[in-house]
Amino acid sequence: MAITNASRLADFGSGIGTAGAVLKIDNSSNEVGIGTTNPNATLTVGNIGASGTSIYVHGDGRITGVLTATSFSGDGSNLSGISTSAVPGISTQLHSVFGTINVSGISTFTDDVKIITDSKKLKFGAGSDLELYHDGSNSYIADVGTGELRIRGTTVRITDNDGSENFANFIDNGAVELYCDNAKKFETTGAGVIVTGICTATSFAGDGSSLTGTVNTGKAIAMAMIFG
Question: Of 185, 226, 225, which is closest to residue 206 (Cα–Cα)?
Fold first, then answer.
């Protein structure tokens, strides 16, 4: 004898569920299962629908809590904002894979921006004239256009990777300083140049009147022959 709809409804109400039923209601835990007889949350949807799709939403959907998924599919073209308030339920931990993204406004990042493949370049300018990249061995800032590569700053310092050793300093309205083993060896001043240590040259030009310091006899004779 076929089970009537009224019998099915009474069966669901008792929390038992008819064998093979599409709907399972567990009164003891207040959990509902669709397409499963073993709900494990307030609402559990089994693997039903075309191509294994569990839920189809025809129209807009809204989630007021946190949305957790193993992956996302789509081009993301309808996502707006950089903050969670613009996309309710999607946190900044969202990981999406896109092909090409065109952004006409300002993009703000709260964490590192990584290019994890060698020789892939971060490019700037309408003609992609400025490139930043790593080729697997070395890192590059490259101007591949027709203009100049300019570094601007009140003071520009070039150091080792942890900043503990100076290589060169370029100071606005001041000195250019060059270092060897973190010791300053060359410095420009308003009066000229200061060299700390031995200065070696193949020749000298000028009258030598401003040369100071102590030289040995051979060097003194050589300078006398050069400068008179």
Answer: 226
Rounded to 5°, angle at Cα 130 from 127 and 133: 125
Q: Dihedral angle at the C-alpha atoms of 94, 98, 100, 105, nearest 10 degrees? A: -10
DSSP-assigned letter for residue 135:
-
Using the structure block, give the residue that is written with the tokens 């309205």: 173
pLDDT of 13 > 90? The answer is no
pTM: 0.49
Secondary structure class of 220 (helix, strand, coil): helix
What whole-number distance in Å separates Cα of residue 193 and Cα of residue 186? 7
Distance in angstroms (rounded) separating the CA atoms of residues 93 and 80: 16
Q: Yes or no: say if 44 and 35 are a contact pair by the CB < 8 Å rule.
A: no
pLDDT tens profile 153-197: 999 999 999 999 999 999 998 899 999 999 999 999 988 889 898
